[in-house]
Amino acid sequence: MTPTLPTEQIDRIVWNQHHDPFTVLGPHEIEQDGKSVWVVRAYLPDAEAVSVVTPDQHKEYPMHSVHHPHFFECVITDAPHLFSYQFKVKSGNSDRLIHDPYYFKSPLLTEFDSYLFGEGTHYQIYEKMGAHPTTIDGVDGVYFSVWAPNARNVSVIGDFNSWDGRKHQMRRGNTGIWDLFIPELKVGTVYKYEIKSPAGHIYEKSDPYGFFQEIRPKTASIVTDLNTYEWGDQKWLETRRTEDPLKKPISVYELHLGSWMHASTANPPANGYPAVSAADLKPGARFLTYRELAEDLIPYVKEMGYTHIEMMPIAEHPFDGSWGYQVTGYYAATSRYGTPQDLMYFIDKCHQNDIGIIVDWVPAHFPKDGHGLSFFDGTFLYEPEDVRIGEHKEWGTKIFNYKRSEVKNFLIANVLFWFDKYHIDGIRVDAVASMIYRDYNRKDGEWLANEYGGRESLEAIELFRHLHSILFTYYPGALSIAEESTSWPMVTWPAYSGGLGFNLKWNMGWMHDMLDYFKLDPYFRGHNNNYVTFSIWYAFSENFMLALSHDEVVHGKSPMIGKMPGDEWQKFANLRCLYGYMFTHPGKKTMFMGMEIGQWAEWNVWGDLEWHLLQYPSHKTLQKYVSDLNKLLRSLPELYTQDFSESGFEWIECNDTQNSVISFLRKGVDGEFVLVVCNFTPVPHHNYRVGVPEKGFYKEVLNSDAPIYGGSGIGNMGGKYSDDYGTHGKPYSVDVTAPPLGVVVLKYIGEV
């Protein structure tokens, strides 16, 4: 039989070199002998014989091999219109019926989708890119699309086609997006993209927009449907939408899901998910699943009084030791702990227990792993080619090309995706400084100035402004927290006023000052009083969050308790004093897991927390103290409603360097206030007079030296009445007892 198209076209299909196989394969209307007829073509490398079967008409048309033994076609002369058909394929001793992928010619990705993606404003691009179970013309299957504009060819490969890139070749659109609907594939299908570079090199890549991946060390993507979970958090979402989070108490429990607590591999998960071993360094241990964490972690966080959980990165990453900060699957919740629906269940249960969810988001860099974004289509696609702006050499990672619209769209839509599909409440953005400074951690000659000769990354700045202008429009009440370690101005100012648009920023200066101060022997603290007081000079220039994070208890920095001087009693007293000052200082709060129990070891991503320490009173009482701090924060609007206003804070005494005692007021919007007195030495101060603005009774609502917290029990017997003579510029004063290494909080009650 003579082929109905040039043999060169057939060869391009056979050799997988055609950018649009739809022009060759599938049904085509042609003219033959002056008559309009239909020709159906197929390339089926494993087939011995093929027929076109029309179930509606109960007809079968044998196909013939033309030019190549596995390229088949048949001419149908008795069908005036396009008809539905299947292939009857004979391979060995078996026959099977299959649908022809190249029958389904209309892409789900429209020209308008492509246009928006090309200009970087398709904020739900994840609804079109990736793998989506769908039905076309009554046939169930999966629609695939991937952006690889410089690829010579792209195919979908998986178990369903023996990982053979010849079998499901994709079509390239004008914007460099390749797509294909594959009939009969289902949720659970394992797949990758086989990408041929312009030079003909072959790469097997995970789906950048894939929603699920195999459990590491495997790297293939898995088809899933994110729309099947039934949420029960509507009340939470509505409340979030209508309230200002910055006027509410925020106390965040930062944790790494894989090292909070482990289970035994001898006891696999009850829901049938496979037991995922934690690490070779901890034989017999497995990760808890998202559903198990919902049962164990949520009650703990709720009892401890935290308002939010911050999860270190849960997007898919290949190496446990990166802590999640080297992401390969930005749209895939890591399969270490379960399915996407399992994570949805965990977040849903958090919301039903009045706990918000913050996730770490990592737009600063991505790893070079071969299955990931690096050199994705055989060219520098997601990253700039110039290593001076395209690579973090110290981290061994690539930097996103923030100048490219499609890459910006990938990142902005990714944030919206987590809010949309997983109902998260906030993001904490990692390593912001590395993005906004082109010379970050680079020597002279190793970085490239911007177009104006400066060191600022104008593209990254625009990314943040664009992101936040959209995020807070789509999701009022959301949190966006910057880990920004420099003095860059206006990080938490709105984008329209020239800021980066975040609504919170980690106060790295406060953290470093306080840890440096508390490491000192108390004898020397009086000479370093500025460590304690300096933060107030700039406390209201940004919306700050005070964070004692995972970075402070790793790499030889010592755990929190290990940083404290003195004997064991003094170490715990110092730690209570630090936490007390933190919770009464202006700003929202973040503490890393394990800090609440005073564990002696640095955090180890391969292990779990030292829960056994809670059998000892000093650790158990510290845990109760942190719980009570959280509950105190929630109960006193004076401690949170004006975190970002000078009206919410007033020094009483900040210059008593001889005694290393400070005192201040925290004020609410309704005129109520609390008095805070901090003694940073192990010497108690009785009859320590502090000026106050109002006459009446000051009730002691917290004393870090109370016996229930492991303290010595020196306090104020429930509270103090003011005296009618003033000091510190106030008309009245109270005679306070400042316990050793202690913090006391006295709530003004009024005249009783």
UniProtKB/TrEMBL annotation:
Q: Which Gene3D superfamilies match?
A: Glycosidases (3.20.20.80), Golgi alpha-mannosidase II (2.60.40.1180), Immunoglobulins (2.60.40.10)
Which Gene Ontology MF annotations are present? 1,4-alpha-glucan branching enzyme activity
Q: Where is the Glycosyl hydrolase family 13 catalytic domain positioned along the sequence?
A: 254-633
Q: Has keyword Glycoprotein?
A: no
- Entry annotation: catalytic residues: D430 (nucleophile), E483 (proton donor)
The catalytic activity, as recorded, is: Transfers a segment of a (1->4)-alpha-D-glucan chain to a primary hydroxy group in a similar glucan chain
Domain of life of the organism in this record?
A: Bacteria
**Which Pfam families does the record cross-reference, listed alphabetically?**
Alpha-amylase, Alpha-amylase_C, CBM_48, GlgB_N
The EC number of this protein is 2.4.1.18
What keywords appear on the UniProt entry? Carbohydrate metabolism, Glycogen biosynthesis, Glycogen metabolism, Glycosyltransferase, Transferase
Metabolic or biological pathway = Glycan biosynthesis; glycogen biosynthesis
Annotated TM spans: none
Q: Which family does the similarity line name?
A: Belongs to the glycosyl hydrolase 13 family. GlgB subfamily.
Q: Subunit notes for this chain? A: Monomer.
Q: Summarize the protein's role.
A: Catalyzes the formation of the alpha-1,6-glucosidic linkages in glycogen by scission of a 1,4-alpha-linked oligosaccharide from growing alpha-1,4-glucan chains and the subsequent attachment of the oligosaccharide to the alpha-1,6 position.
Entry protein name: 1,4-alpha-glucan branching enzyme GlgB
Q: What organism does the UniProt record list as the source?
A: Pseudanabaena yagii GIHE-NHR1
